[in-house]
Design goal:
The protein is an alpha/beta fold. The protein has helices at about 5, 15-35, 50-55, 65-75, 100-110, 120-135, 150-165, 170-175, 195-200, 220-235, 255-265, 320-330, 360-370, 375-395, 425-440, 465-485; strands at about 90, 145-150, 185-190, 210, 240-245, 270-275, 300-305, 315-320, 400-405, 410-415, 445-450, 455-460.
């Protein structure tokens, strides 16, 4: 018989620890240097065909030197990052990262714990971080929570709890076929598309999500909401949940949370708040007033990789009624029986979410909050609000620029408009302007459509941004826009 020790010789640990240490030390030095010099680099740059082709190499069957692999990472991958760490990245809505959080992710990976449960220090860190988020959001002590991959999953967890609580039957036992009446969920026409996915995954279908019109400030129209709820009740449909938004993706608008909470309380409807963009305004000295009433929600979703700048990925869901939360997700199995002692003595955190396997996401949030302090994060959020107002005012003062939506929080929607152009031509000009801004590496806003008009969208969720960065972008917008004015529409993208 062959010697099995030869067949399974060694492990994945380095054969030469000094080689690994050398590469690791170099990686730390390079990371610190790269972050320290971000302002002098382009925000984003396109990949060459040669770099793209490198990602079609065949499956590697044999080992390669770690130093060579690291060299390829630095040559082909790092220079072509999303760019969200850069001071002039304002696209979509994502945090700018933090070296303390990056260090924590490394330590968490080395620790290797599975946070599905267990009597471990990692599990206690997870529970402590969830409780810290609960305190920051103003939820009661008895509320429950879970760290998840991000806002989409946090919303799904919260809405699943809402569905089960409002079903009028035991959905875990009998399923959707046992619903005594159809359920309806309500959100503004500005709600994030993750809620469409939620309706699909929860078995309710897209039609169960009622899109309520918004007012001139892109906030849910309360009169229209009341009318829709009344009409559904009259038709034998049960209004189950209102999804209020604390910071819409398009414009950063915040629904009237206090008024919606009053309505939900009077009508006996679950209130879920999608706070993935704006919930963390609660820790900002000036910004907290914008989300007044958020603490009255039955469930709340937030992203900690946005305004807390934790490295991707980590979100958090809070549920006011812990029993409802557990009843929605807790399942028994003989191999997950909790014991009085040993590793299985700890609480099974997987009972609060869909994932049995859960990474040690909590460590980065734990280390960052301890290192920087909540007050510092709150001050940075207020600074982003000030920066958005600055850009909004600059746009309003410039006759060649249009402000397309009120500046409610930290999102600014605007466009270049020299006058005298049809809307379709103006839209095409601004689409090309955005691409040239990004491809030149000058700045990275994103684009969206606001009630039929194409907009450049600058979302300020970046702790490295300065006022001069905004001025740099506006100078480029005016310069590129002026050139594009004189280019025939058909030739702009040639």
């Amino acid at each position: 018989m062959d010697d099995l020790s030869d067949l399974h010789a060694g492990s994945l640990d380095p054969a030469d620890w000094s080689e690994f240490l050398s590469v690791a030390h170099r990686a730390v030095d390079d990371a610190v240097g790269r972050i320290g010099g971000l302002r002098d680099r382009p925000v984003w740059q396109p990949m060459s065909d040669a770099v793209r082709q490198g990602f079609h190499d065949p499956l590697p069957m044999d080992p390669q030197p770690l130093a060579d692999i690291y060299g390829q990472v630095m040559r082909d991958i790092i220079p072509h990052a999303m760019g969200n760490q850069h001071p002039r990245f304002w696209g979509w809505y994502m945090g700018a990262g933090d070296l303390t959080g990056a260090l924590a992710d490394f330590l968490a990976a080395v620790d290797g714990s599975n946070l599905g449960g267990g009597d471990t220090a990692a599990a206690l860190v997870d529970k402590q971080v969830t409780d810290w988020v609960r305190q920051m959001m103003g939820f009661p002590h008895e509320a429950s929570g879970a760290l998840v991959s991000g806002g989409s999953m946090a919303n799904i967890v919260g809405l699943a709890a809402a569905r089960n609580a409002m079903a009028g039957t035991d959905l875990r036992e009998h399923g959707l076929a046992a619903l005594p009446q159809p359920l309806a969920f309500y959100a503004s026409d500005q709600v994030h598309n993750c809620h469409d996915k939620s309706m699909n995954l929860l078995g309710l279908g897209h039609r169960a999500l009622r899109r309520v019109p918004t007012d001139a400030d892109y906030r849910m129209d309360l009169a229209a909401l009341r009318d829709r709820v009344a009409a559904d009740r009259a038709a034998g449909i049960r209004p189950a949940c209102i999804i209020a938004t604390a910071g819409t993706t398009n414009t950063g608008s915040v629904d009237d949370l206090e008024a919606i909470a009053d309505f939900c309380q009077d009508a006996g409807i679950w209130l879920h708040i999608d706070g993935c963009i704006g919930a963390l305004l609660a820790i900002a000295p000036k910004g907290a007033r914008l989300v007044r009433g958020m603490d009255r929600a039955d469930s709340l979703a937030t992203d900690l990789h946005k305004w807390l700048h934790a490295p991707f990925d980590v979100g958090c869901v809070l549920v006011r009624d812990r029993k409802t939360h557990l009843d929605t997700f807790s399942e028994e199995a003989e191999y997950l029986t909790r014991s009085q002692r040993g590793i299985s003595a700890g609480e099974f955190l997987a009972n609060y979410t869909l994932e049995t396997t859960r990474g040690f996401r909590a460590l980065k949030v734990w280390m960052m909050l301890k290192h920087h302090g909540v007050a510092r994060f709150g001050a940075l959020i207020d600074r982003n609000l000030d920066q958005a107002r600055y850009l909004g005012q600059r746009v309003e003062d410039d006759p060649a620029l249009d402000l397309l939506a009120p500046v409610a929080t930290s999102v600014v929607c605007f466009r270049y408009n020299p006058g005298g152009m049809e809307e379709a031509v103006l839209d095409d000009l601004n689409r090309e302007l955005l691409l040239q801004l990004q491809e030149a590496g000058i700045a990275a806003p994103s684009g969206t459509t606001i009630r039929g008009r194409y907009a450049l969208r600058a979302a300020f969720c970046n702790h490295r941004t300065r006022i001069e960065d905004i001025d740099t972008m506006l100078d480029a917008v005016r310069r590129i826009g002026a050139v594009l004015e004189d280019v025939p529409p058909a030739a702009r993208t040639a």
